[in-house]
Design goal:
single chain, 254 residues, alpha+beta, Creatine Amidinohydrolase, five-stranded antiparallel sheet, three-stranded antiparallel sheet, 17 strands, 29% helix, globular
Length: 254
């Protein structure tokens, strides 16, 4: 069942989202450096979350052991931070996490290029994926929009650019729990539900886009990390969005 949030609940979710956006802004604007481990990033995310009075939304969710999912290069999602995973300039690092602030949940992800410069193909992948996220958010805010409008906007933009759109994982409702209904694919399937987006809905829109195939591999020994089937790089961007009477609001944006 899709949960419609009250104004008070959206205000609480908004506060959680703004705190998360400030954290991701900091990480994106120069914190990630060559020689740092992915566990170093996770440690900082945990310390920040505690400092602002929140709890890690992902830790222990389904048994996940850390604060953030940190996925590098061909890892699409659910990368487990490790002191052995050392970053190099040019690596694509996707940081996906949420904050539980007094029972209000945020969720956002960004892919950051270590050192600020990658291959032209990797840079274009990140640019197009970020653009697709914004197009998906804008589609959600149009009057009378339905769920498929989001997936259509994301898929058309990335497919036109020649990139693969992951089908095995998708966005979702969020706000009072880590994952809520509805599921929000980044493509259109005539076999999936297509409800109208109603004021009070809070959703996480999250394109997961690849340079090569959209097919995934989920047989990592750690039981979590999902990679591209062909070993080519992936990007992941995500916003928590509230549907309002007069459109939409990107909550994970300061």
């Amino acid at each position: 069942m899709i949960t419609i949030k009250s104004e008070k609940q959206i205000a609480g979710i908004r506060e959680s989202c703004h705190l998360l956006a400030e954290l991701l802004d900091f990480l994106e604007n120069g914190y990630l450096e060559e020689g740092m481990s992915t566990l170093d990033i996770d440690d900082y995310c945990l310390a920040y979350t505690k400092k602002v009075g929140g709890k890690p939304a992902f830790r222990d969710y389904g048994g996940f052991p850390n604060t953030a999912c940190i996925s590098v290069n061909d890892e699409i999602i659910h990368g487990i931070p490790s002191k052995k995973r050392i970053l190099k300039n040019g690596d694509l690092v996707s940081v996906d996490m949420g904050i539980n602030l007094n029972g209000y949940f945020s969720d956002s992800a960004r892919t950051i290029i270590v050192g600020g410069k990658g291959t032209p193909e990797d840079e274009r992948l990140c640019k197009v994926t970020r653009e697709a996220l914004i197009l998906g958010c804008e589609a959600a805010g149009k009057k009378g929009a339905r769920l498929h409008d989001i997936g259509r906007a994301v898929y058309n933009h990335c497919n036109k650019a020649g990139f693969g759109v992951v089908r095995d994982y998708c966005g979702h409702g969020v706000g009072l729990n880590v994952h809520e209904e509805p599921e929000i694919p980044n493509y259109v399937s005539h076999f999936s539900p297509n409800p109208r987006l109603r004021p009070g809905m809070v959703i996480a829109i999250e394109p997961m886009i690849t340079i090569g195939t959209e097919k995934i591999s989920d047989n990592d020994p750690n039981g979590w990390t999902v990679t591209t089937a062909d070993g080519k790089n992936a990007a992941h961007f995500e916003h928590t969005v509230a549907i309002l009477e007069n459109g939409m609001e990107i909550l994970t944006k300061v």
